[in-house]
Amino acid sequence: MEVVGIILSLFLLMFFAYRGFSVILFAPVFALLAASLSGLPLMPAYTELFMAKAVTYIKSFFPVFLLGAVFGKIMEDTGLAKGIAHTIMKSLGKERAILAVVLAGAALTYGGVSLFVVVFAVYPFASALFKEADIPKRLLPAAIALGAFTATMDCLPGTPQIQNLIPTNFFGTNIYAAPILGLIGGVLIFTLGTFWLERRSKQAADRGEGYGAHTLNEPEASAAIKLPSFKVAILPLLTVLVVNYVMTQVFTWDPNMLEPFKAMKLPLTAASIKNVISIWSLIIALVCGILLAIALGFNNLGKGILAKSLNAGAIGSLLAIMNTASEVGYGNVISSLSGFKNISNALMSIKVGGSPLVSEAVTVNILAGVTGSASGGMSIALDLMAKDWLAWANSIGMSPEILHRVASMASGGMDTLPHNGAVITLLAVCGMTHKDSYGDIFVLTAIKTLMVFVIILIHTTTGIL
């Protein structure tokens, strides 16, 4: 009955998320449903299990959500993000329209711009380019998703997206973990994804299908687009990458920095300095990027716009982190139930190749798919089982770097099921429906999921990281 309660709870969470209900409200409802079916009293389960872990997650990652959202909003409102996207697409032209859209999204996300901001920045130019090339608009959401939602989100070493940051807190790694495998996975995803979209475009052209007669959310044609130059617009992104690299890989952090706070007997988020270096480094990098973006785009921030941009970014970050924190709180309740031991034993019993990698990949993928969130699903999975996977890896001499990369890449696999918030936003911005465009997005989801197991195979046979 306890296992049935957990499965019922997970199903209801997925169903309500798919129907558009907020997980901030319904994650605790279904967590307490599972708790009640296991005989736990409701109020202690809510305050001591659900809220305790949700608050810990906010304590750990709120600065990254906040600064990331503000950075993205400043890049959007100053026109810097659009300047980058427009230049890339204009340079490659209509002959390489799909590749141009993919690269524009990839450049922005790898530079630290939120994928939600990327959608708004890329769409107007991408739509015009697809129309000029007479490529069906129904393929546009998948092209944007390939650039923004895949390799630069969680594969490529050093990407500052939250999906690449979360594992550092559990495995004591940094965002450059398993760089060769990450690069291989990223290149394969881009190559296969672009091949698929080009093939679909050619098939449409052979049938005589063009851009299509679309009216919903079509961007208005602009005779004169005055945007910052590419050389100027790219500087804040490069700043984030460079400062992040220096603070992570070059700068020597004092290993005793936490000692005064331990002496105060404070409830510290991290047990040691190595678990928070990546978070601290990204905070510093994003602050530098924000300040430079404001300085470079200040002329485009008219009276009151700077305050509105900062406020909008700050408010937007609240929704993002509260969604994820609620899912983490949900996971903590579920993991505390006696029935979960049977589920965790089943997942841990997946011992393909004698390592925890397949177990980890399957678990993270399932939970990302259930929650419709890469960061939420991965946070639940790692909070529940990271210690077991790490102990297993240590027992066979496996580097925690591969655990990091597999968790990160797996989180971006089945997360993009139809109820995923980013997918819903992407389709709405492009003026398309699930019926029009989701099929191609799902193919990318399948490619992304497959690549996790490809890098596991490569690591198992070669040992490279």
Automatic annotation (TrEMBL):
Keywords, ordered alphabetically: Membrane, Transmembrane, Transmembrane helix
GO CC terms: plasma membrane
Gene Ontology terms for molecular function: gluconate transmembrane transporter activity
Classification via Pfam families: GntP_permease (PF02447)
Residues spanning the membrane: 55-76, 97-123, 175-197, 232-253, 273-298, 441-460
Family matches, as InterPro entries: Glcn_transporter (IPR003474)
Highest taxon above the source species: Bacteria
Transmembrane among keywords: yes
Protein name per Swiss-Prot or TrEMBL: Citrate transporter
Species assigned in the record: Pelosinus fermentans B4
